[in-house]
Every structure is written in structure tokens, then in C-alpha cells.
Amino acid sequence: MAEGSDEDEEIILRKELEWLLEEQVHKELEDIQHTLLECSRRFPFRMGLGEYGCLVKPQRILMSSPNNTNQIKCVVTLLGDSICDADISFKHKKGKDDHLFKTAIHPETQWKLQQIQDAGNHLHSAISALNKIDTTHQFKTAKEVQMIVDDLIHSLELGKSCLCFPKRKSIEDLMGSTNHHSLQPPVPSDVALSFYIHGSKLILALYHLHSGSNPTEISARYQVESNVQWLNEAVILFTLGMQQCQQLLDKIHVIKQYEQVL
């Protein structure tokens, strides 16, 4: 009787394993692909969207100070990964007095947001990996599926990190950036400006510098910011895609247990 029970259990496990590999994996990957394509609509890249239209449109944004200071004011037009227009004014000390300095960004000298470009590139890598999977392909082992999902998670983690964890740059890097040359007229030599993304926020940071110090020292820092809805949606969809991948990974671990038994 015990031997018969073992055989019956093995048959059940084998059928469960076949069902997971033949039916469930492709369905889960399709759900992940749908989420990533929806996320791609928030990025200004051609990704073979098909029926998924791009949602990126020019957006005029009034940025405000989180602590209600009036050291800097800024209105920008954001188009995907580019600030294509901006009016910036800030208080700048000239001699003993403060005066208002004004500068601008024009469409012919746009400020590129590398974080959005990088996040979109990692997203594109994940979508491309899914597009390469033949829907008629028969998965044979859990390891085969796990390798695919691990690569997807890696790409999505990198993409989300680009938006949520901006890399710290030195003042010298900021001032030497081609983006800094987008400002017309150029800002004074003791001032540096930086646009960057932090999660769902677009932030403009203003640095007042000690003249002649080496290395360059910051005497004061101010910022204005604004929430951007489509950035928030992109972060949410990156997170959802990673969660879906993890759920599939959990099922794959079950498959691996089946394979060990069989």
C-alpha cells in the first residue's frame, strides 16, 4: 500500500510540475510584461509599444521651496527626460548687497535628466528580454525560468534605483557638466545649479560657493521641488513589476522542490 501511495504522489507532483512550467509561467510572464509596458508609457523612448501609447507630454511646473524660503524661484517645462524650458531667479550676493539674478533654459539648449534616461534604458532591457521569449517555448526546468526572472528583477531594481536614489555628484562635476552650459546667461562662478530626480520629485538645488576655495566649499544650499505624477506612477509600476517577479520566483522555488522529489 505504501509503495502505491508513493507512486500516486509522484504522479500528482509530476502533473503539478508540468502544469506550472507549461501553463503558469507563461501567464505570469505575460502579466509582468503588461506591467512593464504600462510603465514604459511614462518614458520618452520608442520601445515597440504597439497599442501602448506614450503618455509623455510637455508639463509646465511651478517649483516651490519645502521650507518656504524665497532664495530661489523656478518655473520649468518638463518633457520626459528633458527640461526644455525654464525661468530661474535667485538671490545672489554682490559685494555687501543681495541682488536678484535671473537665468533661463531654452528649447535649443535643453537640460537632460540622465536619471530618467538610465531608468528607461533598464526598463527597455527588461522588456526586450521578455520579448525574446517565444510564447510557444516549453520550459523544462525551474532553473531555466529562475535565470530569466533573476535578470528581470536585476534590471527593474537598477531602473527604480535610478529614480529613487540619485548619485551624489561633486560641485566640480556639476559645474563641468554640459547641462550647466544650458543656462543663459551663465550663472556666477560662485554658484552651481543642479536638477535631479528623487523618487516622484523633480528638484532644483542651488549651491552658493566660497570663492577661491580649493577644494570648492559650499557656503549655503537651497532647493525648490515639485511632485511629478507620471514619475510617481513609474516608480509604482517598477515596484509592481518587481513584486510580480518575486511572486513568480516563489512559485519557481516550489517547482525546484518538486524536481528534487522527482
From TrEMBL:
Specify the domain of life of the species encoding this protein: Eukaryota
Q: Name one Pfam family in it.
A: Rogdi_lz
Query: Where does it sit, as one GO cellular component term?
Result: RAVE complex
> InterPro entries, from UniProt?
RAVE2/Rogdi
Which family does this protein fall into? Belongs to the rogdi family.
Show the PANTHER family listed in the entry: LEUCINE ZIPPER CONTAINING TRANSCRIPTION FACTOR LZF1, PROTEIN ROGDI HOMOLOG
Q: What is this protein called?
A: Protein rogdi
**Source organism (scientific name):** Potamilus streckersoni
